């Protein structure tokens, strides 16, 4: 390429100085340009564009951007458009809310589009240069976004709030004819739904005492409401359907306690909530719960809680109907596969098998005339793998008589199934105490550990019961808290000092003034409506542990079949496989891969560190 | 074919075929917005462009009127400066002042082809020259103090790698 010097002119004349490009513009000048443009935009919005000169406006916008005032122009544009829509359009639209609303809105929308096109044209230089360089929305899109934002305070939200299904249907049909019209409505509905959902979900977080049942019920009601709109106003439009689903998924997973609460809700329905409901109603409620279940990202957390709650229901005989339990499990099976439900089914089997064993045991006792010391024993044998594990078996001293009864059962069982081990789990059982007080005989239904008190209560009158506390610390803590939890009319023991915690120096008195209408009084550990924070953390830890194993298993499975794979692809495959249970983060997957490399399940290829091979 | 009248900053009017004029996206938009396709009497004022430059622009556009539309700028593709056609090279054998005015006009009128070729020409004038040479070529005053310069060189070392 030839050097282009000063062309054919002589050096003296031809050496033109490149005019220093005017980098700074007089502030007043910029002001005046902007004023001109602003006025023009407003005239366009008022449909008064015939008197405007395109070239002049284009040139002015060009000059502004060229002199680095693009941002000023962009911001100014946003303000003018928003202001116009807020003032003029919203006013018109709201005025017509009960009358011609849709026609007015439609007109406003069309006018807006037309003016945005014209505005875009005069500001085309800014669109081309400033917008690209600063990665902001171009003029036309900006106009759409602002219009949609304004709609929030106008019709659509109003209609949603007041259930104006027919009006929404009309709007849907009308906007269907306009490009991007439906999308605008969908965005507006989505925003409203997300707000509602978020409010529900986060309200719970700020109020620790919220009931899980109401939480889930209100979510179900919200879903019902929007499904109603979907069917009756939006014609089951797929876009709206998908949008509602993704919104629910979004805010349901905002609250980490959602899986637990959903499980509690179902637990409630399967316990007592089912009474008085027709079969169809029950089926409906369970199906709706399944819909929410599908939205959960942390399905494995749900599984853990469901197991816990099911175990309690089964062991405490709280389940209203075995059929509905099995029904629910089969729904979960359809959704998640057998792996999810195999343990739950195992729990059911254990219950049936235990019943059979008890029948056989009773026969055995009668035949062999064993004396159980007046204890009416009922044992349930649980297979360890199926039932939720307790953190630590608390120490509990079983008094002599029931212990002997248990031993005879143990001998009987081990004779039938040699090679097995039986461990007594006192906290899962309960014991009925027969206590003789002054006055009519009363039954105190207590957890195991407290049955030691039966003998002592019956034998003497008032006076401190110090020895109760020495015997079984764990259970007494729960009982005392229960005593405090219930009202004093139900307390059978008075406590000194009157604090919630129990320590070994505390004393119990028999409350002589205790009366109860019931012959049987249940003293239980305070039924947790939800877990306490430390328990929740523990559950969360267990879940994380399990997830580590599941990720490693998935990695090994995939590598075993493919033999060789690049890191990114492996991460994607693992996520694919596990996403029906939870969403693993790529960072954690990476850590597990490194762990497996250390343990020599995988190796890195020498030529590329990012490719792994399976080590047989 | 219909014509359109373009008026330069110094009052001169040029009558141009509408199709040729439309190679300028700015003029094209103007016409479409104002529905002027059929109007033959309207004059489009271009106060940003003087007659000498406008004449050159029209000359270029007329020659290139059958060119296929330029492709979208592929960000990843490396831009070349050695693919200027000989006609364009000849066309651009002008003094620097004119060259830069052509760039401004092409920018304003949004004529991608002309903008590209004029910028490439200037790029070629810069390529391979040391800073002092560049200053000489374009008659640029050196307003860099020594410290600014060394910092600038540091910050922009990456350009040198290629």
TrEMBL record, chain A:
InterPro entries for the chain: Cullin, Cullin-like_AB, Cullin_CS, Cullin_homology, Cullin_homology_sf, Cullin_N, Cullin_neddylation_domain, Cullin_repeat-like_dom_sf
Biased composition (Low complexity): 452-462
SMART domains, per database record: CULLIN (SM00182), Cullin_Nedd8 (SM00884)
Keywords: Ubl conjugation
Residue ranges of every copy of the Cullin family profile domain listed in the record: 257-479
Region annotated Disordered, chain positions: 442-462
Similarity field: Belongs to the cullin family.
Name of this chain's protein: Cullin family profile domain-containing protein
Source organism (scientific name): Molorchus minor
Taxonomic placement: Eukaryota, Metazoa, Ecdysozoa, Arthropoda, Hexapoda
UniProtKB/TrEMBL annotation, chain B:
InterPro entries in the cross-refs: SKP1 (IPR016897), SKP1-like (IPR001232), SKP1-like_dim_sf (IPR036296), SKP1/BTB/POZ_sf (IPR011333), Skp1_comp_dimer (IPR016072), Skp1_comp_POZ (IPR016073)
Location of region: Disordered: 63-82
CDD domains per record: BTB_POZ_SKP1
Gene3D superfamilies: Potassium Channel Kv1.1, Chain A
Keywords from the named record: Ubl conjugation pathway
Boundaries of every SKP1 component POZ domain copy: 3-66
Stretches assigned to the SKP1 component dimerisation domain: 112-159
Pathway(s) annotated for this protein in UniProt: Protein modification; protein ubiquitination
Family: Belongs to the SKP1 family.
Name recorded for this polypeptide: S-phase kinase-associated protein 1
Taxonomic path: Eukaryota, Metazoa, Ecdysozoa, Arthropoda, Hexapoda
